[in-house]
Amino acid sequence: MAVDIMYTIHFYVLFVLLTVRCSSSFIGNGENYRRNLSLELNPGLNSSLTPLPPGVGLLHVRALGKNDTLHYLLCSQGAPALLLVHTNSTSSKVKVDWPAFLVQNTTGSLKLTPESSVLYSNALVFTRLWEYDDVNDTAVPEHLPPSSFFQPYELQNFTWDDLNKTLDPMAYTALLCGRGASESFSNGSLCLKFSAFDVEGRDQGWPSLLHNANSSQLRVVLDGVVPRSNRSRFSLELQVVGSTQAMSRVDVLQSIDDEYTPSIFKVSQWVSSPVNSTSPVLGYAQWKPVAYRRPSPLFEDATPCRHSTPVPVAQLPPSGLVLAYFGGEHQTTGLNMTFSITGDPFYNTTNYLSWTVLVGLGSPPVDSFSPLVLVIMAVGLGTPMLIILLGGVCVCVRKNKPQPQVYEPIN
Ligand SMILES: *[C@@H]1O[C@H](CO)[C@@H](O)[C@H](O)[C@H]1NC(C)=O
Ligand SMILES: *[C@@H]1O[C@H](CO)[C@@H](O)[C@H](O)[C@H]1NC(C)=O
Ligand SMILES: *[C@@H]1O[C@H](CO)[C@@H](O)[C@H](O)[C@H]1NC(C)=O
Ligand SMILES: *[C@@H]1O[C@H](CO)[C@@H](O)[C@H](O)[C@H]1NC(C)=O
Ligand SMILES: *[C@@H]1O[C@H](CO)[C@@H](O)[C@H](O)[C@H]1NC(C)=O
Ligand SMILES: *[C@@H]1O[C@H](CO)[C@@H](O)[C@H](O)[C@H]1NC(C)=O
Ligand SMILES: *[C@@H]1O[C@H](CO)[C@@H](O)[C@H](O)[C@H]1NC(C)=O
Ligand SMILES: *[C@@H]1O[C@H](CO)[C@@H](O)[C@H](O)[C@H]1NC(C)=O
Ligand SMILES: *[C@@H]1O[C@H](CO)[C@@H](O)[C@H](O)[C@H]1NC(C)=O
Ligand SMILES: *[C@@H]1O[C@H](CO)[C@@H](O)[C@H](O)[C@H]1NC(C)=O
Ligand SMILES: *[C@@H]1O[C@H](CO)[C@@H](O)[C@H](O)[C@H]1NC(C)=O
Ligand SMILES: *[C@@H]1O[C@H](CO)[C@@H](O)[C@H](O)[C@H]1NC(C)=O
């Protein structure tokens, strides 16, 4: 009996371990794909021939794969923008005609060569920061009269810091901080923390988005800005320019696991894919609908955020990078990301907001159950099974026990 129970428990433990092992490899899903990353600032610039105006910088990250290359370009000329270009060549290069690039009126002053190797390009541009006086605490700027809005901060008119000072070529990160001309920014800034990734992983700080070798991340931080009213809330206007398919819809997916982003059971992805959703997604911007009100947030510092429906935009956004790269066919769509909901504290309580977005190629990464959750599930499902098994074992043991002979056999 004791031996039987030991065996049963032994099998049960094996079963749990196997479940975890199987699902871990399932989570891996061949995503341990690695790219070789290299960073360079202002590719091809001879600054003695073409001096850069202050605040203009162009960061190029080359993410080399086995038979393709991803190029990320982060630029602070005009509205800050991140351009992603996928080529089917391992030797594609960025070519910048710097004098023309700096004039900002010549398409083709930045290109990827050979041009025939380009499979996909897409740029995410941060165009405006809206501030509104939420007197009735509704947090729905779409329903407010124009008089509730302050003059928006045009990010194209910000002064941006030198990227050279914040570049970390070993961690593949850079910090781009800018300030508006107004008093409000005298002690404040809007910063974009860029991270490129060579392999699958997850950021330490919330919202701990899952990333892979085909993605990079931007964390937007609005720190120390003096709000123009006590009940100010903010929205960030984003625009996306693509050469092929417009990023025309935002899918919101549900999850039942919030282990990596406490209390957030949703992930939103703004995808570029043909109308009929059976076709694969070409590229995306993905975020969790949450912003944080402190740099090292606690649970209560989370504030939900909400996006407006993407709308087509007639003009190219005012980014030097976009104007230099996108000629010919292109599509632009835009949306507003609104931080906070009714009842949440206003910006003046912490004077801080951070929100994170992942930009990438192909299908967005999907959060799967963590090993911890799987163990809990295995235990939850396994325990009743164990009890049933044990019950069965006991019955069998009882049945097989030689019954005491009551009657003597009759000869
Ligand atoms: C930059 O241009 C100057 C003037 O033509 C030339 O002397 C110098 O070698 C160039 N520097 C680089 C790094 O190409
Ligand atoms: C990345 O670089 C390492 C060493 O420099 C090399 O062994 C590896 O083959 C490279 N991988 C790719 C995909 O180019
Ligand atoms: C690269 O190679 C993989 C298989 O190794 C293949 O599935 C993929 O289509 C190739 N990509 C390109 C752009 O040729
Ligand atoms: C771009 O601007 C420069 C200087 O402002 C001007 O000389 C040039 O003709 C312009 N090019 C185009 C294509 O508009
Ligand atoms: C890359 O893609 C272009 C356009 O789709 C195609 O013409 C070219 O043959 C491809 N090259 C390779 C090496 O796959
Ligand atoms: C706030 O609520 C009051 C009373 O309901 C209403 O009269 C006013 O128009 C509202 N203000 C805004 C900006 O919505
Ligand atoms: C921003 O810059 C543009 C172009 O330089 C200018 O037309 C516009 O008036 C500026 N906006 C603000 C709010 O300063
Ligand atoms: C960046 O700064 C370093 C030293 O601070 C300097 O040596 C380097 O030339 C700079 N790079 C560029 C592209 O400005
Ligand atoms: C900025 O900070 C300085 C020093 O902390 C302070 O004296 C000044 O009043 C602040 N400015 C604003 C607009 O808050
Ligand atoms: C922020 O604004 C609210 C609403 O007007 C006010 O009650 C509160 O005192 C302000 N907080 C700070 C820190 O200024
Ligand atoms: C998408 O599917 C609908 C029916 O499901 C069809 O009528 C429509 O033509 C399709 N659109 C495209 C672009 O294929
Ligand atoms: C963002 O919100 C502002 C203010 O409501 C509005 O004027 C603007 O058109 C919106 N932008 C987009 C792309 O929806």
TrEMBL record:
It comes from the Eukaryota. Keywords: Glycoprotein, Lysosome, Membrane, Signal, Transmembrane, Transmembrane helix. Residues 1-24 form the signal peptide. It is a single-pass type I membrane protein. The chain crosses the membrane at residues 372-397. It is found in: Lysosome membrane. GO terms for cellular component: lysosomal membrane. InterPro entries: NCU-G1. Interacts (via lumenal domain) with lysosomal protein MFSD1; the interaction starts while both proteins are still in the endoplasmic reticulum and is required for stabilization of MFSD1 in lysosomes but has no direct effect on its targeting to lysosomes or transporter activity. Required to protect lysosomal transporter MFSD1 from lysosomal proteolysis and for MFSD1 lysosomal localization. Belongs to the GLMP family. This is Glycosylated lysosomal membrane protein. It comes from Salvelinus namaycush. The gene is LOC120026727.
